[in-house]
Amino acid sequence: MKWQMLIADQFNRIEQELVLVLDGLTTDELNRQPVSDANSIGWLAWHLTRSLDRNMFELMGKEQLWISEKWYTRFNRKPDPGETGYGHTIEEAKSFTSPDGKVTLEYHRAILKRILAYIESDLTETDLNRETFSPTLKNKATVEARIASELRHGFMQVGQAGYVRGMLKGRGWYR
């Protein structure tokens, strides 16, 4: 197995888990907070996806799909390339209204398609050691560290969304 396939597989697994978490949920369930100061499934799925869009596209030197394909309109949000949910107050998270889960999955899949193309055709082993500066995160990190961070963050967010789904639906939802 080539190392690119391993990285691509991990991004694909995040998407597969997201599909399971969102499957069959109503918009009410997507927006329901299990307790008053917790994030909803819809917010967690949006945050995961927005973070991938901003951070990976910044790494690739491409414009976010949030802006270029106007995904912000489908989420009824402003065209702010910096808004990913990072730093949201509980009030801001509560005010987030998720669209249908299919919209979030379509957005996620559009991002995933470009990420996989980057990994499979543009990313080289030499690139992994290249140091980058993120004007958004205001830090320096290697390409390898940034990709690893996005994978960790993706699994963490989809895991949290799955946990919230378990709180709402009870045992047995995960197949």
Name the descriptors.
175 residues, mainly alpha, Four Helix Bundle (Hemerythrin (Met), subunit A), two-stranded antiparallel sheet, 9 helices, globular
What does the model show?
This protein is mainly alpha-helical and 175 residues long. It has helices at 3-22, 27-31, 41-60, 65-68, 71-74, 90-95, 101-122, 125-128, 143-169, and strands spanning 131-134, 139-142. The protein has a single domain (3-169), classed as Four Helix Bundle (Hemerythrin (Met), subunit A). It is built from 9 helices and 2 strands. Strands 1-2 form a two-stranded antiparallel ribbon. β1 (131-134) and β2 (139-142) form a beta hairpin. α1 runs antiparallel to α7 (101-122) and α3 (41-60) runs antiparallel to α9.
Produce a short descriptive summary.
With 175 residues, this protein is mainly alpha-helical. The chain is 64% helix and 5% strand.
CATH class reads: Mainly Alpha
Give the CATH architecture.
Answer: Up-down Bundle
Strand/helix succession: HHHHHHHHEEH
Helix content: 55-70%
DSSP strand count: 2
Count of domain modules: 1
Number of helices: 9
Q: What name does the CATH topology carry? A: Four Helix Bundle (Hemerythrin (Met), subunit A)
Spans where pLDDT lies below 50 across 5 or more residues: none
Strand order of the largest sheet: 1-2
Quote the distance from N terminus to C terminus. 28 Å
Mind describing the biggest β-sheet? 2 strands, antiparallel
